[in-house]
Amino acid sequence: MPTLSNQHVQRVVSSFTHQLHNLFGANLLGFYLYGSVSLGAYEEGISDIDFLAVLAQEMTPLQLIKLRRAYQTACEKDALAKTFEGNFILQNKLFLDNTVPCPQVYDGAFHVAAPRDWNAVTLYNLYHHGLSVKGPSPKSLLTPVTERDLIKTMLGNLLYLEQRMPYYAQHSLEYQVFGVLTLCRILYTVETGKITSKRQAAEYVLGKGEIVGVERTGTGSNGFGLTEPWLGIVRMALALLDRAVATTASKDMTNRVNLHSHSRQDKADFADQSVNDIRADFPIKDLADEDALVAFVRLVKGMTEEIVAGNKKWK
């Protein structure tokens, strides 16, 4: 198993993988970490632990029962296991257009056959950044995702955010922060053809930091030509994320990870408590304004379409 920067994550993942090996034996071809852990952006109390377990053959009904018990045991042993978000997929189903439900764990629960968000971003992350806890390199099991597939997913995400942003504006600061930072990731990806964490994407958009190996192609001092109040919205979202991280870090571990055993609305309420009290510290309040948020989505959509139109290989 690779050495992870967070030793708590290392212990929980190692213990769970050992349970899976005892349950499946040679049928477990590989166990891989991706997402914030593999991107070096994991923040305990905020981030999930994303994983992919690859199997050679279908599980038996008895194995499904034992897998549920193994996951429940992992959660009882260490509440951090409730932040697992993972899929158990057959090797011959590891392709982009596969939409067949599979066993999953997320939100602190085991699901026998849940639909999954199996998109180009997930596959790209696994192929280029996936960490092998058990098994060969993920590149030996996965087909590379093309940049065109990646951009297609980004355009789909934009359409989704355009529809959902009014709901985010009306319901929760957590959703709003998620939406704005996801827009930053979309801008980063369509300009570079790569993926990164929400935090790094926001810093990239703000012009605060260069990502190693990436040459900007946008215009303006910040790389995209964004001006106020849009830069202020991104700064606010990033500050709210920082505050949420600081708030969860000040709480004991049990309170933090129990957030993953409650509903998504409970999570949103918790996030609101974590970040609402710093709103007065910022002169720009547009992050919670529906019209501004919807306008920001449309602005990013226009910029994205312009970048894509100017890149022949994405047409």
List the helices and strands and how they pair.
Elements: H1 7-24, E1 28-34, E2 49-55, H2 61-77, E3 84-90, E4 102-106, E5 109-114, H3 120-129, E6 131-134, H4 147-171, H5 173-192, H6 198-206, H7 230-249, H8 253-257, H9 264-275, H10 290-309
Parallel strand pairs: 2-3
Antiparallel strand pairs: 1-2, 1-6, 3-4, 4-5
Helix pairs in contact: 1-2, 4-5, 4-10, 5-6, 5-7, 5-10, 6-7
Q: Residue-averaged pLDDT, rounded?
A: 81
N→C terminal distance: 40 Å
Structural class: alpha+beta
From the alpha-carbon coordinates, what is the Rg to the nearest angstrom?
20 Å
Q: Approximately how much beta-strand content do the residues carry? A: 5-15%
Per DSSP, the total helix count is: 10
Task: Count every beta strand, where a strand is a DSSP E run of 2 or more residues.
Answer: 6
How many domains, in number, for the residues? 2
What is the H-and-E element order?
Answer: HEEHEEEHEHHHHHHH
Biggest sheet layout: 6 strands, mixed
Shape: globular
Q: What are the low-pLDDT stretches, counting only 5+ consecutive residues below 50? A: 209-222, 250-286
Q: Name the helicity range.
A: 40-55%
Main β-sheet, spatial strand arrangement: 5-4-3-2-1-6
Describe the structure.
Helices cover 50% and strands 11% of the residues. The chain has 10 helices and 6 strands, in the order αββαβββαβααααααα. The chain has a 6-stranded mixed sheet with strand order 5-4-3-2-1-6, sandwiched between helices. The longest helix has 25 residues, at 147-171. 37% of the residues are buried. Residues 209-222 and 250-286 have low confidence and may be disordered.
